[in-house]
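U., I forgot to send this yesterday:
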Amino acid sequence: MKYSYCRVSVAGTGSFLPGDPIPNDRIDEVLGPITNAPARVRSFIETVGKRMLRDGGVEFRHFAIDPKTRKLTHTLATLAEEAARRALDHAGMSPTEVDLLLLSSPSYDHTTPPTTTILQERLGIENCAEMEIHSNCSGVGKCMQVAYDALRTGRYKTALVTYPQLSSVYLRDCYFNQAQMTKTQAALRYILADGSGAVLLKAVEAGGDGAVVPQELLGTYVESVGGKRPPAMTAGGGVADLIEHSSPVLEVLSRGSHHLDQDFSAVNRDAVTFLLNGTLKMLDSLGLAKNSIDHYVYSIPTRQLYEGNLEKVTSLFGIRPEQVKFRSRHCGYCGGASILVHFDDMVRSGEIRPGQTVLLHSVESSKWMSAGFVVKW
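Result:
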């Protein structure tokens, strides 16, 4: 059935942070101690790791972990479900009204079936279209673009976008072959956190370009600039690690190639540049002026990164510091879910006022993608 809608509205937002807030001095207790790593890694944890936590600007973060048993309390599907139900409640809608269900995450609950179908079942949706996008920080923007285009063309009336981040899977002591750990792999334990976000979108019939659509999604932007660049975030254990015939899974574990790793030098050198360039390209593609944006919302992991680039950002966009805030202080850095967690908090607190325009954008270092969207409230 076709629908002749051409404008898209944000009907509801939702987010979820699992468990109690964890202060910095309890991270190793909750994730489990690193006791069998090389001496240089253990020394890094005791010195640089503690300094990262002290200076990072994050006071609390959340992990989907039972602190007593260290078992996971959520899967990706159940983590996404919490945020999805909150977005649906916020919109005053039933799950059965969802036509298109979208989920992005760097992980999945099963190789097959897709996590979207597990989420669909948990929400009690008997029939809908679903798509899962395998991505990290740029995944929200990618889902928003698919949803935006699908609603504008009239294929669907409603779309639910979800993003669960379960970083703790890669961070618990039991996941590592600790003898093969590196300092960068250890450092990620003090940066990443768990959380999920969701946005419910509706197609809205409007009389013309001059008609006002409340909470209108003005457009989206997606790009990859990593065609000739090496990845800056990696996690093995996929098909590329299983090519050999002799005990490939055991080889992955013995090498530690399943570990989540980050090229911090590349991130420090390129991430902000790619983020800001992507923002400028998005504004240009949507025909929006830099001074038309009231809130620039980015997923910023540490206060050092924020403060070290604040002058550059405010100068480039001609904005005040309060228009681009460091927002991870009490929730931690939830990777790809961050901008949706921040967005939901801004909506529910009333920080976004009617008539204001909000730009949300993320850069993904895995192979240098960026994606985002703009909403006029």
